[in-house]
Write the structure tokens for this entry.
Amino acid sequence: NVRVFSGMQPTSDALHLGNYLGAMQNWLKLQDMICKENETVQNERDKHSVLFSIVDLHSLTSTKSISPKTLRSNIESVATNYLACGIDPDKVILFNQSMVPAHSELTWIFNCITSIGKLNNMIQFKEKKRSEDNDNISCGLLSYPVLMAADILLYRTTHVPVGEDQRQHLELTRKIAQIFHNQYKTKIFPTPITLNPVHSKKIMSLNDGTCKMSKSDPSEFSRIMLTDTDAQIKSKIKKAKTDTITGISFDPSTRPDVANLLVIASSMSGQPIADIVNEFSNKPTSVFKEFVSDSVISHVSPIREKIDYYKAHPKKVQEVLYKGAEKANIIANGNLKKIKDLVGLYH
Ligand code: TYM
């Protein structure tokens, strides 16, 4: 049976273009593909399922500066963003991670079979560690990838649609499954496959084409949020870093900033990069930038309008989260029982 799982952290109140192009576009494709496949599956038990989560427990590793009230409202806002992008709670299970306690329980079991050495070697941990002093690094930050492995393996997931930057976390997830199988002499978890976007769309910061677009960048101008107004999008792209070379060409290694704008424009407009390069190869950067912002605006503004609609109907969003958690808890608790049996724990 195909089982899809993925999630995003509610560290801010909206998704950015990196989240959208690196993950969300694939989520939408999978949602529709699997829904179609399910139509032909007769037996209820054999129907495939897709789960998309707001991973609030993960965000506790980086929310020291966010108040509990803000975190709570970010969770609802991210759910609102999912719905506005087209995630359909009638087709998939949309839920908030902390409403399914089995995630934390399985994390503890996995914590006890994962070596600190492996976790110390995770690239994202090393990067985050560099920006904190030793006394401030929490166990949670170190164990972050273990929680992610629990998210995935808890549902016996087969496919995980994520951006390029999650590759190492998925490798560790497969390793943890293997260690569990060796220790308890039973194969219970499928090997989860990572699904990256077709052209491996790692979306870069608008201020620096060599760093990824991220929620944690202190500069608002480094990213475009799905909640940005048309004027904000225009001004961010106008200010986006480019280079002094005349004309537009696609060369990620020597012209990373222009290449990033081309990837964005191509994904948003649906036009191949080569066609856009052809059209703008001899034109000034300012004219090209107008095309980039027009393509982003025409794709993002309908999403923003839907976000505004759901923001005005918070009860609808809360209901989706409660119903989603109910369904997720059923699958999660069933699998957790089997896992606890293997480990020798009571349930
Ligand atoms: P998070 O919240 O940082 O990002 C959510 C998704 O967006 C993708 N992404 C990007 N893709 C392309 N370019 C970018 N600049 C960019 N920035 C973010 C990420 O690859 C991700 O797919 N650890 C995960 C959340 C998580 C998870 C999971 C994912 C927790 N448990 C289980 C899958 C399965 C994270 O921090 O994503």
Residues 3-196+313-343 form a domain with the Rossmann fold fold (CATH 3.40.50.620). Residues 5-9, 18-19, 22-23, 55, 58, 148, 151-152, 160, 162-163, 165-166, 169, 201-203, 212-214 surround tryptophanyl-5'AMP (CB under 6 Å). Residues 31 and 230 are 29 Å apart (CA to CA). The first strand starts at residue 3 and ends at 8.
